[in-house]
Amino acid sequence: MQLARVKGTVVSTNKAEKLNGLKLQLIKPIDIETWQEKGGLLVAIDAVGAGEGEVVMVVSGSSSRQTAVTEGKPVDLSIVAIIDSVDVNGSRIFEKFSRG
Fold it and tell me: Where does the protein principally reside (predicted)?
């Protein structure tokens, strides 16, 4: 599993039949220790309805085909969760919504 930030959307009108109806998102991995984005942009199938700018959890390989949305599909990277907060060593390093 990897954390990433949704950077945009990919639109494809011509694709393999098993990908019809699936939302394609551009994501950029996040280094959990530094909270910096790292590496290049990747395309992932969105199984949870994430939006641009959100921090998400992604899975790859056979795990990416273990959701109701992606089962039996030609998928290698899936968004499986939208992250609300991240705590490391007792300190909150990310929070989606500020309290107040």
Answer: other
